[in-house]
Specification:
The structure is a single chain. The chain is of the alpha/beta class. The protein folds into 2 domains: 22-218, 3-Layer(aba) Sandwich (Rossmann fold); 294-373, Orthogonal Bundle (Arc Repressor Mutant, subunit A). Helix content is 50%, strand content 12%. Strands 2-5-6-1-7 form a 5-stranded parallel β-sheet. A two-stranded antiparallel sheet has the order 3-4. A two-stranded antiparallel ribbon has the order 8-9. Strand 3 (114-118) and strand 4 form a beta hairpin. The longest helix is centred in the C-terminal third of the chain and has 21 residues, at 280-300. It is globular, with a radius of gyration of 23 Å. It binds adenosine-5'-triphosphate and magnesium ion. Residues 9-12, 19-22, 43, 45-51, 194, 222, 258-259, 262 line the site of adenosine-5'-triphosphate.
Amino acid sequence: MKKPSNPFIISGYLGPSYFCDRKEETKSIRSAVENGRNLTLLSLRRMGKTGLIKHSFQQLKSKKINLIYVDLLHTTDLSTMVKEFAKATVNQLSLGVMKISLQKITTLFSGLYPTFTIDPLSGSPSVEFDIHKVKQGAKTLEEIFTLLEKHTAHVIVAFDEFQIITSYPEKNVEAILRSHIQHLNNVSFIYSGSQKHIISSMFGDAKRPFYQSTQFLSLEPIHTKEYHAFISSHFKNAGIEIAKGDVDFLLDWTHHHTFYVQYFCNRLFDLKVTDPNTTVFHVIDKIFQENEAVFTSYRTLLTSQQSHLLTSVAKEGWVHQPTSKDFLSKYRLTSSAIQRTLPALIQKEFLTREERGYRVYDVFLGRWLAEKF
Ligand SMILES: Nc1ncnc2c1ncn2[C@@H]1O[C@H](COP(=O)(O)OP(=O)(O)OP(=O)(O)O)[C@@H](O)[C@H]1O
Ligand SMILES: [Mg+2]
């Protein structure tokens, strides 16, 4: 794998050297899929679900298991979902351990019209489907599952951003998928999502098709000790000095939220390469400057009451009980105003509710509000 110039990556997965910890979680995923249990991976946005799936796949690669990763993020209906699923499946089956010929695959799907392309650099074949030609979504879905079932090899399918299927115009997608999935013995599924209430209700409501069909894995922030060691060692390997106090500070400032930690370290690394005297405060200035316009526009999306509550939570960092006397009097809020505005801020994902209390979902926005207002 190509070595990145900055070891703190902020998109994608580049291998175990650039991936911090998650040993227990990787073990749980491995144990689940190897023992025929399906798994639901849940976390806040940008905590590292996709990275963990990719990392687990990397660890399972040697085991001759077919790994199919389906990103549902940009799907809008059954037909676009089937297109993504078919693309991931066909590419894996033709290139992975099954090595089915591409010609054979075309004859297996009656509803799909694939176009084969060859990557000019790697020479690897790849398949695309024209969306307009993906008719009869339910039928093609059945064909994909039949194809998977016919194979004796173990297959793992990861559906990333799975909650999206509940927003499709077709109302029966959950039931259709479940009816296929429950008959497969050689295929394990990983479902991942960040909208906790939707995922919890999909898998925890007795009236829903996926009720109690999976093991839950909740992805929490990476532990301080592990993240500290990871950050320090990457700076050290590059010959850049970083004080222990700075690492403690940045982990706390980013609430240990993976993407924000990675982004902070990426900027700090970048700045320190040219100026070793750069401090964490220079990074904060940069982050605030760059995001000022976006953060200001966010505020225009909110009513003045919502904006006031959001800023009040931002100043506190964490608010365990928003209707407590102390919080209300400190920020001149009323309990009825909280009851009106809090649900909207959660629904719009400006605030998140964790065990420790409420906090601003976007860490940088929260820090900016706390400092500027
Ligand atoms: N264990 C890790 N060590 C280092 N970087 C990580 C780790 N996990 C994730 N990242 C990085 O953090 C960022 C966010 O991770 P990722 O995209 O996996 O989160 P996600 O939960 O899937 O987010 P979303 O909800 O937006 O899909 C990415 O840049 C990823 O490379
Ligand atoms: Mg993701």
